[in-house]
Amino acid sequence: GLLVGTLDVVLDSSARVAPYRILYQAPDSLVYWTIACGCSRKEITEHWEWLEQNLLQTLSIFENENDINTFVRGKIQGIIAEYNKINGIKEDDDTEKFKEAIVKFHKLFGMPEEEKLVNYYSCSYWKGKVPRQGWVYLSINHLCFYSFLMGREAKLVIRWVDITQLEKNATLLFPDMIKVSTRSSEHFFSVFLNISETFKLMEQLANIAMRQLLDNEGFEQDRSLPKLKKKSPKKVSALKRDLDARAKSERYRALFRLPKDEKLDGHTDCTLWTPFNKMHILGQMFVSTNYICFTSKEENLCSLIIPLREVTIVEKADSSSVLPSPLSISTKNRMTFLFANLKDRDFLVQRISDFLQQTTSKIYLDKNISGSYISSDDEVFTRSSSLISASPHKSLSSESEGERQFNLNDNGIPTATQALMTMYRRRSPEEFNPKLAKEFLKEQAWKIHFAEYGQGVCMYRTEKTRDLVLKGIPESMRGELWLLFSGAINEMATHPGYYEDLVEKSMGKYNLATEEIERDLHRSLPEHPAFQNEMGIAALRRVLTAYAFRNPNIGYCQAMNIVTSVLLLYAKEEEAFWLLVALCERMLPDYYNTRVVGALVDQGVFEELARDYIPQLYDCMQDLGVISTISLSWFLTLFLSVMPFESAVVVVDCFFCEGIKVIFQLALAVLEANVDKLLNCKDDGEAMTVLGRYLDSVTNKDSTLPPIPHLHSLLSDDVEPYPEVDIFRLIRSSYEKFGSIRADLIEQMRFKQRLKVIQTLEDTTKRNVVRTIVTETSFTIDELEELYALFKAEHLTSCYWGGNSNATERHDPSLPYLEQYRIDFEQFKGMFALLFPWACGTHSDILAARLFRLLDENGDLLINFREFVSGLSAACHGDLTEKLKLLYKMHVLP
After folding, report:
1. Among 122, 96, 82, which residue's Cα sits nearest to residue 237?
2. Which residue ranges form the domains of the chain, and what is each CATH number?
3. pLDDT for 557-594, tens place per residue?
């Protein structure tokens, strides 16, 4: 019996779930087929009787064993298919084996039906010094392990929200091991058949849990996951395939900066003909609902984004030995892209055609970027233009400057239709001549680039594009290229009129976010003339308020005002809004929520990178506590608050082109340039001064802008000025020394830090709650901490498994910590039975209902932690008078 039980766990025999089976085995075969299975003798007898009547009698007509085998298999498969058809079971539904695993999972760990199993894997769990061979079950909310070896049972249940660290380690004994840490313990798993797949799924599920701790979005069902293909492997659960599809879509969106609701349909290897170097480049084509994208196998060689709204013709060209299975795609701006070596071209063309039919055709205006240089007048004239403008606005030469600054639409809502910088052109002094000449050459270089590589969203993006960005984007082209590189151009093109509607809806609305916005408006780039009058301030107010209205989870956070004011200088008001959307929701995830989690995560990543790349400085900086202090403002404002304006915008250029890796590289380069000075610092104040003076001295000698006084430099002391540092040289140096930092490495490090940061914030919240409430109750600090953990677990459970109210109603992050988490009566009833001294006998449910009604002061059918503890405190620790008073109140009729 012990041996059978052990083998059952190790080999995952189905005998425990289906104890009765009918097997079919041919005389000369070692393999048997499971014909039927049942949970009881009665059920299996019914199956046998059916076989006797419908199958066994027919077998006598066959002459040889092969015919019998073929007939039996075909008959059974036909019966199963017919049963599935009648009962509406789809081909993609989970297999019998997986269904058995689900039954085991719910039975072994006492999980409710709502808890969905994602996948299960064979592995060893180290309990003490002894490895226990068994199965790890990964569900949406829990990591569970079960083993039964030689009469000894090992069982483990960990909630994903309790995990503080998840690592894949290698030891001498086991080259592959997964370490799972919680606040109180560490667990080790090894001997996986596929450790990479297991660890990747663990990461995904832990990430979902962290998102649930951050906000309610994590609990919302994503019903728009990609449809499963018929060729999907049947041994994997449908939920696992959905999660895999979601992860692939996330990587795809991040790679090509696409809107957050874009879903990847599939990808295939192919070649792309690149006319600029007359080569067929090997890479991958990605097809999604609204885009066709390409990236080369060789990094940074070439990438391409073709929105389906721009596509005019998709056609199959004739195959040849030189160009097998070619596919030609033409766009509205008369560019043609030639793909070849496509494996399943017909299927691909069909998918693209299907998506094209769904794409509603809209008309967009494609203008050329232009700027003119007039040497006699020593002034640069820039024409406000857009690569793709969703709502083209014609400006007549007879209009006055004041009339052109606003677009009064039908609803009378003013929106600035020009970048603020174009309204503040100043006549430049004589010494600016060489700078204007250099600016003109930069513009010409970009125009030549557009002629060769295409212009607009469908341009070929190559290493040459990046090199041009690193040399600095011309002032006149900055806004348009920011839109292009950030992907904001796509969201703006597909949402015409959205911003104006938001402005209209948010006008006159007042809340905490609008109060904070009003307070910070005049602190946003006050040294720039564009924000020294009501016009610039009003545009900034509209963009920030509209965004707070669009995304109440973020609302408004300090530092958003500084970044947005710079966006408004170079982009029209609507464009600045979509650039802010791209920053907050895609390029700087979770940076600007109430707890600046994203910036804290990247701060942790930066510390890790500093330890790896500048080890001689790391220990010293940790002792001084400088890294965490300095880097927060660097990351939150993209160096805009710590560098002279004309230098910081060059950093923003590179950021929109290359992403967050630029900020990490630059931050490391700044530390590395000051190693000797920092090593001699005695305290954090001295280190801050060294870095502050260095950043103040970063100059952009190419800038045609009149110098704008920088806040830090205004506060300078009598110490001799720091030698000037050229921004372009600093950026080049950061690429040479730290260019090996890859985006995928940053994402791995972010995951590790996210667990750490969010769990630290949760611990801080718990301490704050306990400290606030300890004086109001008779409980000790330890008791309150345990009660808080239990209350929060009950709240999260109700979010996982449903209830009478949704997650948003039960959790309001805008409330004080004590009142954020709330539970309804069903959850309270369970806790009442567990904790309250009167929870016994036939009347416990009635008592629970009456106490809940008494504690629910505002009558919203939910109680928060403060209300819960006040009731429990009186019941458990109150004196006789308090207990009688509580019982009396409970029995008074409402």
Report:
1. 96
2. 9-86 (no CATH), 96-219 (2.30.29.30), 257-358 (2.30.29.30), 405-425+454-465+479-587 (1.10.8.270), 597-741 (1.10.472.80), 751-891 (1.10.238.10)
3. 888 999 999 999 999 999 999 999 999 999 998 898 87
